[in-house]
Amino acid sequence: MSLQDSFLQIQDVRSWFPLRKTLFSNKQTQYVKAVDGVSLSLVKGEVLGLVGESGCGKTTLSRAIMQLIRPTSGKILLEGKDLTLLPEKELRAMRPNFQMIFQDPFASLNPRLTVFDTLSEAIRVRHKLRGDKLKDAVGQLMIKVGLSASQMNKYPHEFSGGQRQRIAIARALAPEPKLIIADEPVSALDVSIQSQVLNLLKDLIQSMGLTMIFISHDLSVVKYMADRIAVMYLGKIVELGDATEVITNPVHAYTQALISAIPTLDPKSERNRNRIVLQGDPPSPINPPKGCSFALRSWIPHSPKDAEIDGVFMEIKTGHFVEVHPATVENHRRYLPDSKFETQ
Amino acid sequence: MSLLQVENLATHFDTRQGTVRAVDGVSLSLKKGETLGIVGESGSGKSVTCYSLLRLIPEPPGKIVSGKAIFDGEDLLRMTKRDLNRVRARKISMIFQDPMTSLNPYMRIGAQLIEPLLIHKMCDKKQARERALEMMHAVGIPDSIKRYSMYPHEFSGGMRQRIMIAMALITKPELLIADEPTTALDVTVQAQILELIRKMQNELGMAVILITHDLGVISGFCDRVSVMYSGTVVESGTADDIFYRAHHAYTRGLKKSIPSTQEKGSKLYTIPGAPPQPIGPKPACAFAPRSDLNFSEEEARMEAKFLEVQPGHWVEVHPASVENYKEYLK
What we know:
The complex is a heterodimer.
Chain A (H helix, E strand, L loop, with lengths): L5 E13 L12 E13 L3 E5 L6 H8 L7 E6 L2 E2 L5 H7 L3 E4 L13 H13 L3 H14 L16 H13 L5 E5 L7 H18 L2 E5 L3 H7 L2 E6 L2 E7 H6 L4 H8 L6 H5 L32 H4 L4 E6 L2 E5 L20
Parallel strand pairs in A: 3-8, 3-9, 6-7, 7-8
Antiparallel strand pairs in A: 1-2, 1-4, 4-5, 9-10, 10-12, 11-12
Chain B lengths: L1 E14 L2 E14 L3 E5 L6 H8 L8 E10 L2 E2 L5 H7 L4 E4 L13 H11 L5 H14 L5 H5 L8 H13 L5 E5 L7 H18 L2 E6 L2 H7 L2 E6 L2 E7 H6 L4 H8 L40 H4 L4 E6 L2 E5 L13
Parallel strand pairs in B: 3-8, 3-9, 6-7, 7-8
Antiparallel strand pairs in B: 1-2, 1-4, 4-5, 9-10, 10-12, 11-12
């Protein structure tokens, strides 16, 4: 994939938040390194699944792409234009191109606006429509997401969770975006409703040719939705590759643990299953451990000295990238034959 | 001998819109040391069922309308408050869904942990502290002496849920009710917490009721499973019955709509519509409007029956919920 092909190009993005200094401390300012050097690129029409535990920086990354927070450093190129360099006014003109769907449909809709108010705003601004024509456009949008146009004058509280998420999806579609970031769009919904919304999203991606970053902690949902999967851990991408490849042949120890933690619907195999249970919690992103951030929780034996050396993010197979380190990849020597690591 | 026998429990709430039949005729039974899973979507009444057992329902607007809950030979629903307080936390403990909100932010972890022991006068303060430290170690909290005097906000979500488990188990109860204990947690932490509950169950020999909306959590963890829909149990049996031989259309639909069971690229199966509002008169079959089975209007009006279709496997049989229902409804 050459640079010209990529629709969205994220280059070494960092998002650090300074901690408040105490009055008399003369220590250096400390930072929460929520996103710490992420590079990704998406082709048009692609769905990238982004997975990871809470606190790993998924949401911060998506907000940085959306320019809801300006990243500390790095570039975000949408169709070749660097969003981080655009002044506020030009950015505003670009915003219709990238929209977001949030997790909680109970919190993300304004309770005082009717569905018509919520959806018409973007259409009115973009197409300068008024009156009946505007109503028609809103109605069509509602039908597109599986609602009926007659519900236009209702308020969000009159809808169920699944219907509200449909409204939120319609709102994201209203400005006719090219890129959508969906941040855990189904995790607040019940199982039977979840599949309805997933089907809708999949249909929309195909019919409208959308490019999407789909964030979730549920790997089985991501596997179903995404073409490629990126696994994030403590502000960094640790594994990236084709969805089926990452799920069936995970190489990074963290990805393996995540996949091992997915419960199945087969009681017999569940009872005899050897699950990789990770020890402890992820380390704090304030002073992340030196070297490999996963070393503390890994079950792969490695020397303390090795743990302090940085891993190498490398392509181990065409399109399959992994952060290779003695603590994260079992036979790391296969990929790092002449490295500085000791052998255990 | 069953440890807990719930018969025909009904809990209703009076609201401005009318009476909500949150739980409407639930029967459950649980043996010593057994694990029962209760699955259902939000609003199906699974939490209210368990809150009713310990009478944690705010009255009014809630009211336990009918039923029995025999625990150790005594009816929990008819006990005096005083007797009930002797059972609460000592014989039956509960873990709540959200570890962020169920700990008291003003109290040190240690003080919260030993509270049940002190209230039940099971030992003196010094012994209680020792027991608490022992429990913290058992649930995998490092540095227990230092953490004993810390506050909840200094703990991560997984750690807080561990504290909740330690607190629930410190009295060595006979029954643990866990209401969505892992829903607020990450998948990797979820695996840790489930392992922990299982380990403690083996050590203490207690029975567990696990409430969840996640069929995957249930499958490896529970001996028996009850599936709830709109305030009633629609199917109940061993884990194998539910996962390999499910009869009820809702149970089957629920299993089919999970993405991991689906071929990539294919359309996900969906149960049409949304769960009904449990207000107003009770329908003959609550699932009929969403069922994928063919049944006539006349059949839809038939009363559903809760039948034992195989030893230990109970199903609510109705033309809208079970194929070939005539085999069972003779």
